[in-house]
Amino acid sequence: MNRAVVFLVKRDEIVGLGQFGIDACEGVADSSVRNLRIPRGEDSLFRRVIESQLPVKMKPDDSGWNRYLLSQLGGSAPAEVFLGPIISEGKVVAVLYGDNLPGTAPVGDTDALEIFLSQAGLAMEKALLVRRLKERSFSEET
């Protein structure tokens, strides 16, 4: 994929976290992505991947929030997008969005990337567990 954005999935909204490949002046793309906010309950590209907890490749439809997202990412509609969930403690906590703009090719094979995303979720769960155990141990000592 030529471009990718990581989105944090919060209770009420989906928020841009970081990116690569978004064509804008230096620093402006990062700031624009961090200012992206999409209501979680609204119809958007993210809804399907959050509900199913499965990666998807699809052509974006012309819904309002999809138009907003694509306009914030440069305005063009890609031939296909990839959305991969990062799951921790049974919930989608982040989503990786990717496309091939400015090219026109569909997204290629994502099997290795999907494995990486599942491993990232497991690593997050392990880190949370370790932190909780340390907090519990600290509170029992005091």
Features of this protein?
alpha+beta; Beta-Lactamase; six-stranded antiparallel sheet
Entry summary:
By secondary structure, this protein is α+β, with helices and mostly antiparallel strands. The protein has one domain: GAF domain (Beta-Lactamase), CATH 3.30.450. It has helices spanning 28-34, 45-52, 64-72, 111-141; strands at 3-9, 13-20, 37-39, 56-58, 81-88, 91-99.
What portion of residues belong to β-strands? Answer: 25-35%
**Number of E-state strands:** 6
Written as H for each helix and E for each strand, in order along the chain, the element string is: EEHEHEHEEH
CATH-assigned homologous superfamily: GAF domain
Q: Could you say what the CATH architecture is? A: 2-Layer Sandwich
Question: How helix-rich are the residues, as a percent range?
Answer: 25-40%
CATH top level class name: Alpha Beta
Using the alpha-carbon principal axes, give the shape.
Answer: elongated
**Mean pLDDT figure:** 91
What is the number of helical segments per DSSP (H or I, 4+ residues)?
4
Largest sheet: 6 strands, antiparallel
Instruction: Output the CATH topology.
Output: Beta-Lactamase
Q: Spatial order of the strands in the main sheet?
A: 3-2-1-6-5-4
Give unreliable regions as ranges: none
Going by helix content, strand content and strand pairing, the class is alpha+beta
Number of domains: 1
